Amino acid sequence: MDCRGLSLVFATLVLQTVWRPASSLLGPRTTVTKFINLSKVNKNEYCHTCIKIDNVCYNQSELFDLPAPFGEDPVVKRMRIMKATNVLYYTFVPAFSDKEYSKVGYVSLHATDYSGIISGWNYTFNFGPFDINQNKKSVYLGGSDGIWYINSVSRLPAFYSMSSERITNIFVKDYVYFTAAERTGIYHYLPKFGYYLTNLSGKKIDNFVLDNMYNIVYLIDTGLFISFSDKSHDDVRLSLDRFFRGLTVDGKGVAYAWHIDGIYKVYLSEDLSQSTLKRVSNIAPDAMTFDQSNNILYSIGKTLYKLTKVDTADCFGM
Question: What's the rounded Cα separation, in Å, for the pair 152 and 84?
C-alpha cells in the first residue's frame, strides 16, 4: 500500500473516533415548506401553484436551503439523488477561504438534519463532477486527482482510477464514463483492465450525458450536439449556444439541458437527423435532477425546489 493509502486508512480510524453528526457543523436549518394537498387537485380544477411542462402540470414547492459552507454568492452546479436512500448529492462552490474550489455535499430528503460534506481529510480533491451507480449504491467523484468513490454508509473516498488527472465530467451507466482536462473525447473505465476511448475522439468535451439509447448528448465550444449509437447517422447540432449550465437525464433516460432562459428537452425524431432541442419551461435553475417518481428537483442559489406532478392538466404554461 502506498503512502496515500496508508494516510487514508489512518484518516478513517481518526474519523471513526471523532465523528459527530455533520449537521451540527453546518449551522441552523430552514423549515421545509409543506406541499399543497395534491389529492385535492382533480382533473377539472385549475392549479394556481402549478406550471406546465410538456403538457403535464407540476405543483411548484420550495423545500429548504441546502446545508453547506457556501461562498458569498451561493452556487450549486450539479445534483443527483441516490434512489435507495433518497439522499441528494450536490456540487457547490465553497467560501473563498476554503483550500478547495469545489466540494460535494449531501442531504437526506427524508430527514434533512442528516447532511454533510464529502471530505478527503488532509487531501485536496476539489470534487466536482460526480454520478451515482444506483445498483451498487456508490457515488463516483472526479476532481483534481483522478476518480474516487464512496458508498452509502462510510462516505470516505477510496481511489478508483486516473491518478493525477483532473476529471471534468462523470456519467455512470454500464461503465463509469468520464472526460479529463488534458484529453479529448469521452472514455470509460473497466476495473482490472483500464480506460478506453468511447467516442468523440479529437473533440474537447465540456459536458455530456448518455440517454436510454446510448446516444451521447454533448456540449463543446461550437454548441450542443447529439452523437447517435447508430453510427450510420451523423451527429446533429441541437443548438449553437455553448453556454448551457448543465445536462441530465430523467428516470426514463430522456436528456435535458438547462440554460439562463429555461429548461430544455431533447426530442428524438424517427428520422434521427431531425432530432431537436425544445424549451419546455422558463424556470432557469442553477442545477436540476429527477427523483424516484421522475419529478424535477432544482436549485436556485442555495434553495432547493421541487416540481411534483398533479392530476389536473389545467395550469399555467411554461
Answer: 9
- We report the CATH number of the domain holding residue 185 as 2.120.10.30
Residue-range definition of the domain harbouring residue 24: 1-30+69-205
Q: Is residue 307 part of a domain?
A: no
Alpha-carbon distance of 193 to 280, in angstroms, equals: 42
In a domain, 21, yes or no: yes
Q: Is the dihedral of CA 94, 155, 299, 113 positive or negative?
A: negative
* Count of C-beta atoms within a 10 Å radius of residue 198: 18
Average pLDDT of the chain to the nearest whole number: 87
Tell me, yes or no, whether 138 lies in a domain.
yes
Paired with 255 in beta bridges are: 249
pLDDT at 290 over 90: yes
List Cα–Cα distances, 166 to 39, 106, 138, 309, in angstroms: 48, 22, 20, 39
Q: Cell 440554460, residue?
A: 259
Q: How confident is the model at residue 20 (pLDDT cuts 50, 70, 90)?
A: very low
Over residues 36-66, the pLDDT tens digits come to 444 455 566 888 888 888 888 999 999 999 9
One DSSP character per residue, 126-141 reads ----EEEETTTTEEEE
Please tell me the pTM assigned to this model: 0.85
Domain count, the chain: 1
Q: Are strands 216-220 and 223-227 parallel, antiparallel or unpaired?
A: antiparallel
pLDDT over threshold 80, residue 210: yes
Taking CB atoms within 8 Å and a gap of at least 24, the contacts of 137-146 are 137/82, 137/84, 137/85, 139/80, 139/82, 139/89, 139/104, 140/170, 140/172, 140/176, 141/104, 141/170, 142/167, 142/168, 142/169, 142/170, 142/178, 143/102, 143/167
Residue 22 lies in a domain: yes
Q: Match 454500464 to its residue by C-alpha cell.
A: 174
